[in-house]
Fold each of these.
Amino acid sequence: MFTLSKTDKNGIRSGVIKTKHGEIKTPFFMPDATRGFVKLLSAEEIKKTQTQALVVNTFHLYLQPGLEVIKAVGGVHKFMSWDGPLLSDSGGFQVFSLIHKNQKMGKITDDKVVFKSPLTGSWHELTPEKSIQIQFDLGVDMMVCLDDCPPNEISRASMKKSVNRTIAWAKRCKKEYLRQIKIRRISSYNRPLLFAVIQGGTEIDLRRFCASELKKIGFSGYGFGARPVDKDGNFLEEVLRQSAKFIPQDALRFALGVGTPEDIKRCVALGWDMFDCVIPTREGRHGKLFFKQADSYQTISITNTKFRQDYQAINSVSKFNVLQNNSFAFLHHLFKLKDPLGARLASINNLEFYQLWLKNINKKIK
């Protein structure tokens, strides 16, 4: 359940989500634990960064380790030793990306998606119903409808087909969601939140139509579908602005795949509540670190030679002793030798920064 606490005159919002694994204060950022873990980090370390919730991926967990492994231990929370809220992405983005990049990897029809596993080469089918069933088997707190997720640059005619398919699949997902609640005898207190995804690329009228039809079905929240940037990497600010307005005030607004600290700040200003992205940990593994600087932030590349003899602490204000007690010079040394400890320390630093970034944004909501 989502309760909206504040909305200022500019439309910036804050609220609280109640789930069976705890409360989440909005707006908030979720690191991507795509395959049931955040690379290189333990659940305890992630918790210490003040992370409230994580995102896992239906597509990847279905393929590896497989549902039988996760169900045997009682769900994905126990499997990954995470006791906080979890959101599962439907896997639609991954499946459709796979097929759009190489048509030999599968086929999309109005009924289902057939795809070839990139791990084993075996063939699989994914329907809206199966996606919801898998997410219930995972035992997550928030789940996302399977949607048709094409590149933003496809033709308008193709985008219309994608929007119509997304709406049709959302109806099937909602029907299966209600069926699973009934057959699993899940109480209203414990039932997961269900999100639909608004598609339409950069065509605002198609986004409006998609949102309008999804609202008729009714969901706990609505996501911004496809990439939030164009083919040149430009942030789709106006599309995100208008899309937020199409979503009911009492529903959650999930900006999937956003993003950089700057883009998150922009989206909060546009009225979005939820964010997830691989940026903090992926960039950390490549030696890019984020640091707060006044009301903004700066980044550094630790592999730069200038850090070879820089003995200041990696992060003197961190809650992690390992960041307070080790120097830039040491971190530079680790990266030069490609030791995993370097990527771990950078990832911890970046996740801690992201959560403090959101916390500071929250403080300014009047």
Note: The chain has a mean pLDDT of 95.
Amino acid sequence: MGITYVQGTVRGPTGKEAVVDFLVDSGATYSLLPGPVWRKLELEPKRRMSFRMADGTQLVRQVSECLFILAGEAGHAPVVLGEPGDGQALLGVVTLENLALVFNPFSRTLQPMRMLLV
């Protein structure tokens, strides 16, 4: 599939914003913000959660929430508060679903989700 980045804006509860280049990670459930970004937004941990990495290791991280603005859509979603060594910002599927967006692997863009009400 290759590596794809999309640019988005994140906003914390105090109104502070940051523009972030997210790595689109179809294997990630939650999005992740590196420490310098979530601290700038003044995000506060809401709970601790356990995550299993692709190599099988298990990590415990703090989770908060923030406003994501991507591809013209905005909405709140949970976000993992990255720690040193966690790497770059990741865009997970829960954030995409909350914003009713899907990743098109052919055009490598975010597009509106086809919504069904059944």
Note: The beta strands are 5-11, 17-24, 31-33, 47-52, 58-70, 73-81, 90-91, 101-104, 109-112.
